[in-house]
Amino acid sequence: ILTILGNSAVLATAVRRSSLLKPPELLTVNLAVADTGMALSMYPLAIASAWNHAWLGGDTSCVYYALMGFLFGVCSMMTLCAMAVIRFLVTNSSKSNSDKITKSTVCILIAFIWLYSLLWAILPLVGWGYYGPEPFGISCTIAWSKFHNSSNGFSFILSMFLLCTVLPALTIVACYLGIAWKVHKAYQEIQNIDRIPNAAKLEKKLTLVS
């Protein structure tokens, strides 16, 4: 309920002020869409199965649940990664360069994120990797057990882990460390200035820190 209400509030706000949205804010909207999709398509089944102490439905609903989880999960992860990269680029670019991040550019990026997520989500359906029940039997996901007893499952899980988890996570960490270092250096510059000749210079530095 909190997930749906919170993300719905984000989407409602975005619709009300759509003409005022800055390009990077579209990624926040995309993240809200992915999280809302996950909540609506997965949580009811998961909650009902938990109360039932067993998965409700057969193989079809299991594949559906795992597919939705993988699709929206990868989309959320890649959206967070894109947000970190854009924030890093804006922080480390001049005003003229940061203005090059247009709405059309971000829309193309969002389209790529969804296509990338969809590709990984349907791969188990076409023969690379598998979907199956989780160990407790009340939800479904990637068949992690195939990592050890199937070369197909091993190659899929390893590739997915590297390209959908490790690489995006390292990119996010690197970008935010870069932003933190930039802010730290700007703060040091301010601390080293004994006397600032005019207010504009101070305002510029404080804006950079913000």
UniProtKB/TrEMBL annotation:
Keywords: G-protein coupled receptor, Membrane, Receptor, Transducer, Transmembrane, Transmembrane helix. It comes from the Eukaryota. The chain crosses the membrane at residues 26-51, 63-86, 106-131, 154-179. GO terms for molecular function: G protein-coupled receptor activity. It is found in: Membrane. Gene3D superfamilies: Rhodopsin 7-helix transmembrane proteins. Coiled coil: none annotated. The keyword Transmembrane helix applies. The keyword Chaperone does not apply. GO terms for cellular component: membrane. Signal peptide: none annotated. Residues 6-210 form the G-protein coupled receptors family 1 profile domain. It holds the Pfam family 7tm_1. It is a multi-pass membrane protein. This is OPN5 protein. The gene is Opn5_0.
